[in-house]
Amino acid sequence: MPPSVGVVLPTHNRPELLRRALESVLAQDYEGELRAVVVFDRAEPDMSLAGDRVEVIANTREPGLAGARNSGILALDTDLVAFCDDDDQWLPGKLAAQVKALEGEPGAVLCSAGIVVDFDGRELPRLAGTDRVTYDALIRDRMMSVHSSTYVARREPLIEIGMVDETIPGSQGEDWDLALRAARRHPVVNVDEPYVRVLWGLTSYYAQAWETKVAALEWFLEHYPEIGDVPGAAGRVYGQLAFGCATVGRRRDALRWSARALRANPAERRVPFALAVASGAVSGKRVLLALHTRGRGI
Fold it and tell me: In DSSP terms, which residues pair with 231 in a beta bridge?
């Protein structure tokens, strides 16, 4: 009999998008038990969403995305736990394909899949190019396709590795951290087909919280010091810090991180953006809009 699956949908003040996300989850053609738990974070739960396969709860842990995810995980007793953010959509066939892949790797904690980035109606696929994502690969490359809305995990091992870390500032990058911890135990299994439509852009609740993003990036450098040992990884994170500091007006810090990024990787592409923003030639928002149009980010 196929394993039971519970899907956690954290939400914050996006009722229409949430309903679309929930419909995409419940529409999956899956032979096993499938149910969902919608977790309202810092908002009154909408009990009209509750039904035979849908439980509606409030976040009872740390306010924010990580606490909401963990509230949902602990509310479930299914064999597997999956995530879908309230502004994303699962595409047909996703769950069955990932459960099959996960069952083929008994030691794996986590399975991911490819995504389709939807920015202002323009769709661009993003794939990892592999069926197994290692810890070292995740240190070298953030891999935007290894996205939280694609995650399907074995529930008990997920709890054993600590669930979603609630100490990361603003829950920024919590999916990267979770994938890293899962990959320490066993490579992340990856179904390299675009099975989730990810709504991307400045509509995201956290899209422009750059002070928080900077704090989160510093958290990653502290908790994963090996990032600094890999030139490409170090250049990427330092470049992101430079851009973030420039965006919030911390020009001196932006210049300092830009210099560190170039020392780590002289070809780091984020540095010119950071310097342009720091000089006042362009706004961070305008840079992000241009990148998102191409399915890219900082």
Answer: none
Dihedral sign from CA coordinates of 83, 21, 75, 60? positive
Determine the structural domain holding residue 76 and report its residue range: 5-199
- Per the domain annotation, does 42 fall within a domain? yes
Helix and strand counts by DSSP (H, E) for the chain: 11, 10
Same domain, 10 and 95: yes
> pTM value?
0.94
Residues 87 and 235 in one domain: no
Count how many domains the chain has: 2
DSSP 284: H
Boundary-marking domain end, from 135, 169, 199: 199
Place of tokens 């949430």: 18
| β-strands 54-58, 110-119 pairing | unpaired
pLDDT digits (tens, 9 = 90+) for 121-167: 889 999 999 999 999 999 999 999 999 999 999 999 999 999 999 99
Q: Measure the CA–CA gap between 249 and 280, rounded to whole angstroms.
A: 9
Residue-wise pLDDT for 60-80, tens only, equals 999 999 999 999 999 999 999
Assigned domain for 75 exists: yes
| 200-239 residue pLDDT tens | 865 554 445 899 999 999 999 999 999 999 999 999 999 9
**Is residue 204 assigned to a domain?**
no
Interatomic CA distance for residues 242 and 252, integer angstroms: 9
